[in-house]
Design a protein that fits this description.
Elements (H helix, E strand, L loop, with lengths): L3 H30 L4 E5 L5 E4 L9 E11 L2 E11 L2 E9 L5 E10 L18 E6 L14 E4 L2 E2 L6 H5 L20 H9 L3
Antiparallel strand pairs: 1-2, 1-3, 3-4, 4-5, 5-6, 6-7, 7-8, 8-9
Length: 199
């Protein structure tokens, strides 16, 4: 009959092995679903170019690029990012395994500008505020009415006084019904090959 100490040691060994295997399987799954994005950058002439590295962002605004994220060799998500002098507008597009649009989410992150008053050594630093909404279009392809959630550093806030100017951009979100319509769509085969060789 096994001794109590031997049984306890055996159980502990099984628990440790199980935990290691679970961690390893979780790591593998994470690697399959989360990958480094490729970048599709829009030049001043309006043309899109595919690259591995994140484009430089102009401080004065004007930078536009899309992040293409793959799960294995399937395009899973596209994030279109537009930069302005005081804000960043983003549209996140999620696709199913057949390449059809599942969801669009919009967000705008806006700097809070506080005038420097006489006698102030430094301008007051207030964190950016964020506006987020689900923008998935209806059957007519149009962005429907939407509720906007406002926050600052993850804490919900009231609608900022200047919000309407920025939130209006949500209504002009490009609608990509399938992956064949996204930026750099003509180069998706090349993008898949580039994604497969990323470290």
């Amino acid at each position: 009959m096994p001794r109590a100490n031997d049984v306890f040691a055996g159980n502990m060994f099984a628990l440790v092995v199980g935990a290691v295997m679970l961690a390893a399987s979780t790591t593998v799954l994470a690697k399959e679903s989360v990958g480094k994005p490729l970048y599709c950058w829009q030049g001043a002439d309006g043309k899109w170019s595919l690259q591995r590295f994140k484009p430089l962002i102009e401080v004065k605004g004007g930078t536009v690029f899309a992040e293409l994220t793959f799960a294995a060799n399937v395009l899973e998500e596209v994030r279109l990012r537009k930069f302005y002098a005081d804000s960043e507008l983003s549209f996140d597009y999620m696709f199913d395994v057949t390449g059809k649009l599942k969801e669009i989410k919009g967000s705008v992150q806006v700097k809070t500008v506080v005038p420097k008053l006489p006698g102030d050594a430094e301008p007051i630093d207030i964190p950016d505020w964020l506006g987020e909404a689900t923008l998935t279009p209806g059957a007519d392809g149009k962005i429907p009415p939407h509720h906007v959630f406002y926050s600052r550093e993850k804490d919900q806030i009231e609608k900022p006084d200047v919000a309407d100017k920025y939130i209006a951009w949500f209504n002009s979100a490009p609608v990509y019904r399938t992956i064949s319509e996204v930026p750099c769509a003509a180069r998706l085969k090349e993008a898949k090959e580039m994604n497969a060789t990323q470290e």
